[in-house]
Amino acid sequence: MNLPAWIARRYFFSRKKRSFISWLSILSMLGVGVGTMALVVVLSVFNGMDELNRQIFKTFEADMTVSPKEGKRFTASPELLAKLRQTAGVSIVTSVAQDNALARYGNAQTVVRLKGVDDNYLKRKQLDSALLEGKLKLNERGVNYAVIADGVRNDLSVSVLDILTPLEIMYPQSDQSFNVLNPNAFNREDLTVSGVFFIESKYDNFVLIPVAAARTLLGYGPDDVTSLEIQLKTGTNENKAKDALQEIVGDKLLVQSRDDLNIDLYRTIRIEKLLVAITLSFIILVASINIFFTLSMLVIEKKEDIRILYAMGATTTLVRRIFLTEGAIIALTGAITGLFLGIVICLAQERYGFIGMGTVSSIIDAYPVRLDMSDILMTGGLVVLITFLTSWFPAQRAAAVK
């Protein structure tokens, strides 16, 4: 029989009457439990937000993007495209010509993010789930079409059913002095709107058009692009593919993964998660300080019991272990309860979505959550560490009683 654990359990569970110390122990246990539960839930919400952003980016952005290290554009020769397509793991290579432009529809106009893409773009089927209205087509029977974001549709009051009113895209000519009154100062392209998509507000000003039309508007050559977007085959190792592609494109071009393009956002989420974890850890520490006071008062109350134990041959190590075990019972009971409730709340939110986002324009109805075993283990380890620190000094005091 483990004597320290048995005596500690007697102190905590088997009191004949509830004293102030008993209620303080319960209060300490509840404080640790609530703090632990909050830490698990909040960290899971940050995990869910991280995963949600990755899903959003995956809907619009490619696995790999090749862009120039200097300048806005580069020449993608047929030889370079052929080498990229033959690289192991590469599925689709898309030529992209992208820049800001002015869009006009009827009497309304707005600045848009123009993205010219070749026919391979629609083969990626990324926008299939984001299509709100119309069809995803960019060219049919020699007619150029535009697929616009829902924000552009709202700004310009575009109707997909109206095939008579064109979407006019204008871009300043590089060889002309800029003058809004000069009709020859802009390159112009009229397109029919074929579809409307919605992903997230970050992409709400995009207009997708054929890359040939975009090159004409931007004044690019037949092989000029602002980037090459590369879709990888399922199961391909991204790091190995990235290294192989970088070796092919050379030093003047940069290959970036989807995570590389959005590294600032991911870094912000990680920093916020760390700061929140530190804040909630202090809350758990404050709750655990009650354990310090509880054990200190228990040492005073049990001085006679401690002297009797010493008289019966107990060692200072045994007495110290009794009070360390007492602190562990209080803290771990609260921690285990908090972990259990936190996991249950996260699983229920993930399945039923009880807590909504509270915004009409959100792409999801409820807060995203994702349980991560590392967060649970970190929370449990943190509680154990804090418990040991707050229980050590009262246990030392108890061991010094003679």
Automatic annotation (TrEMBL):
<keyword id="KW-1003">Cell membrane</keyword>
<dbReference type="Pfam" id="PF02687">
    <property type="entry name" value="FtsX"/>
</dbReference>
<feature type="domain" description="MacB-like periplasmic core">
    <location>
        <begin position="25"/>
        <end position="247"/>
    </location>
</feature>
<feature type="transmembrane region" description="Helical">
    <location>
        <begin position="376"/>
        <end position="395"/>
    </location>
</feature>
<dbReference type="GO" id="GO:0098797">
    <property type="term" value="C:plasma membrane protein complex"/>
</dbReference>
<dbReference type="GO" id="GO:0044874">
    <property type="term" value="P:lipoprotein localization to outer membrane"/>
</dbReference>
<keyword id="KW-0812">Transmembrane</keyword>
<keyword id="KW-1133">Transmembrane helix</keyword>
<dbReference type="InterPro" id="IPR003838">
    <property type="entry name" value="ABC3_permease_C"/>
</dbReference>
<dbReference type="Pfam" id="PF12704">
    <property type="entry name" value="MacB_PCD"/>
</dbReference>
<dbReference type="InterPro" id="IPR051447">
    <property type="entry name" value="Lipoprotein-release_system"/>
</dbReference>
<comment type="similarity">
    <text>Belongs to the ABC-4 integral membrane protein family. LolC/E subfamily.</text>
</comment>
<keyword id="KW-0472">Membrane</keyword>
<feature type="transmembrane region" description="Helical">
    <location>
        <begin position="321"/>
        <end position="345"/>
    </location>
</feature>
<feature type="domain" description="ABC3 transporter permease C-terminal">
    <location>
        <begin position="279"/>
        <end position="399"/>
    </location>
</feature>
<feature type="transmembrane region" description="Helical">
    <location>
        <begin position="20"/>
        <end position="46"/>
    </location>
</feature>
<feature type="transmembrane region" description="Helical">
    <location>
        <begin position="274"/>
        <end position="300"/>
    </location>
</feature>
<dbReference type="InterPro" id="IPR025857">
    <property type="entry name" value="MacB_PCD"/>
</dbReference>
<protein>
    <submittedName>
        <fullName>ABC transporter permease</fullName>
    </submittedName>
</protein>
